Amino acid sequence: MSGVRGYIRVILPRYPEAGQRKVLETKGVSGILVEDGRKSVHTRDDLIRIVRKGTVVAIQHLFLLADPKEKRKRGGTRADLWKAIDAIEAKGGYVWELSTGLHSGRPRERDQMTRAAVEALARGRHKTTRSDKRGRPSAAFDEKQMADARLIWADVKRYPTWDAARKAMPKNFTPARAYKLWGARTSEKTQ
Question: Yes or no: is domain 4-123 CATH 3.40.50.1390?
């Protein structure tokens, strides 16, 4: 794909370079510019500078075109996203969002793609859908694990510190969770 340029904006921990690069490479995109706030060699301005008529900018999610540093300015990241899209299209280029397959060369898809990106930026949590369940899954414990954890939490003589109790409790069961469930370790409730 000669007229396709890839763009990666690293936003850790949710959007690392390796994951975005994998998506771009599976779609056959080879000319990839990476913008990483810590060790960036390229910027979005470099990308816009190389756009020519017919160039397609491939990006995993459209909202990654918006600079997160623009959040505190008037219009914020949404205005910055529009500025980037307008600059690419003014030079005759197009944007191809790989997560949805939408292309800005088709008016209906462009509207759908930009609406979803602006909504994602407005929510502040860059989800692709409302049912997106990103993040750490909640810990679930069966009755036996809960009973074991309660006995360990209540046994102040055998486990005198929170750290000692934490080491003895079931995996992923924290002292904070135990305190929230059963209160202080020396109280009458835990005995």
Answer: yes
Residue 178 has which token pair? 């135990």
Q: Where are the alpha helices (DSSP H) in the chain?
A: 17-26, 44-50, 76-90, 107-123, 143-154, 162-168, 175-182
Centre a 10 Å sphere on the Cβ of residue 150 and count the other Cβ atoms it contains: 15
Closest residue by Cα to residue 44 from 1, 10, 90: 10
Domain ranges in the chain?
4-123, 143-190
Asked whether 50 and 88 are in contact (CB, 8 A), the reply is: no
Distance CA 43, CA 182 (A): 52
Q: What is the pTM of this model?
A: 0.62
SS3 call for 162: helix
Residue 12 in tokens = 């850790």
**Each residue of 112-169: pLDDT tens digit?**
999 999 888 887 655 444 555 666 778 899 999 999 999 999 999 999 998 999 999 9
